[in-house]
Amino acid sequence: MRVQRRTLLGAVVAAAGLSACGDGDKAGTSNGSTSMWIWPGGLDAAMVTQAVQHFASKTKLTVTTLEGNYQDQLSPVLDGSGVPDIAGIKGEDMSAVLPRADLFVDLNTLGARELQDNYLDWKWQQGSTLDNRLVGFPIDTGPTALFYRHDVFQKAGLAAEPDDVAVAIKDWHAYLDFGRKLVRKVPSVRLFCNAADLFSSCIGQSNRRYVSESNSYIGDTDTVRTAWDLAVESMGMGISAGIPNASDKRFPAYEAGKVASDTGPAWLSQDLASSCAKSAGKWRVANGCADGANQGGSFLSIPAKGDDHETAFEVIQWLLSPENQAKMFAGAKLFPSAPAAYQMPELQAPDPFFGGQRTTPVFATSAGKAKLSYEAPSDFAIEQIFITQLEKLESGGTTAAAAWRDAVDGGRKLAASKGVITG
């Protein structure tokens, strides 16, 4: 899966000297302040400022934006002192957090269950344990679609309008064939950055990844192999630029029109607008082969040892209402987890970066096709092993057979080290 790569959207609210939380007996009592931890870009700065003002008569809301590895900073304080009253949880970290649900308040006990119908069911379930304890209240989602350069597709004489592109790339093999035609017409262009992204996008559409619900390793099954074979096939077609995700050449290639598309999540809109400003107006998004996957999308939680759980939940409920999610989309391109927000003015406005296209219907369609996908705590690390082997293969450093063997064996070894059944 692609690591969430939102660019820094600016500090939310800097707060020093968070109040120390007491022991378990004091949890739920008020000390006149409410502390929140989040990472850069996790919430819209303007909405956080409004929240501080909105709750000023009830509590002093202070928000700390943590740089660096967020989860590594949050985990050590959850069962000790210094825990925040509200804590953000990144989507890719939720599978590791759920087994520690006892360290969090079940938000259903504070009234969340009455709000459930307002949010996408699969996203709601992603923040819930198997016994339906709600650990994370959904902030946003990352429904995937095809981001593409309208001008490049047009230059090649191919489908270029979103509805036409959606028909032309209705499935992954159609997408690869489209890329073959594109490169034939415009030889200096490649369809996408790298084959590993294609692999991750395909895996993201399945309902499980590398570890099953019964804690067994499944990295060698048909689901993974099908996505792998698709990525390997693309390498022989001359449609991949071979630019790794971490390369600083990625966004310049998009901006220059050397790479014409990306099957990415809704939050990629903000990254493209920030990093590829000179190509504003030349981009579009379309449904098609990438629909139905989700990458990223985060949550707010209430640590059990925090203070005044009721007030903390009031803050969460207000911040993440459909109306305020719409405002956060306008400010930070956080795509709402509440479908009612899709019809609000902030999400219906034409987007100048995408040539005046209204992009919400595209992402809403994809979000509607998404389903709950089981994610084990070790899935992310295992996928990095598969991606490393695909990148090695694409750069000519190994053979297809060896890459698959090393990916499967490496994934199995890592899974075993995490207590996953591999026999």
The coarse overall form would be globular
Q: What is the alpha-carbon Rg in Å?
A: 22 Å
Give the overall pLDDT as a whole number: 92
Written as H for each helix and E for each strand, in order along the chain, the element string is EHEHEHHEEEHHHHHHEHEEHHEHHHH
Ends distance: 25 Å
The second-level CATH architecture of the largest domain is 3-Layer(aba) Sandwich
What's the CATH class of the largest domain, please? Answer: Alpha Beta
Tally of discrete structural domains: 2
Reconstruct the topology from this structure:
Layout (H helix, E strand, L loop, with lengths): L32 E6 L6 H10 L5 E6 L4 H5 L11 E4 L4 H4 L23 H6 L10 E2 L1 E2 L2 E6 H6 L6 H7 L3 H14 L9 H9 L18 H14 L14 H6 L5 E5 L2 H8 L7 E4 L12 E3 L7 H11 L2 H11 L2 E2 L8 H4 L11 H10 L9 H16 L5 H18 L6
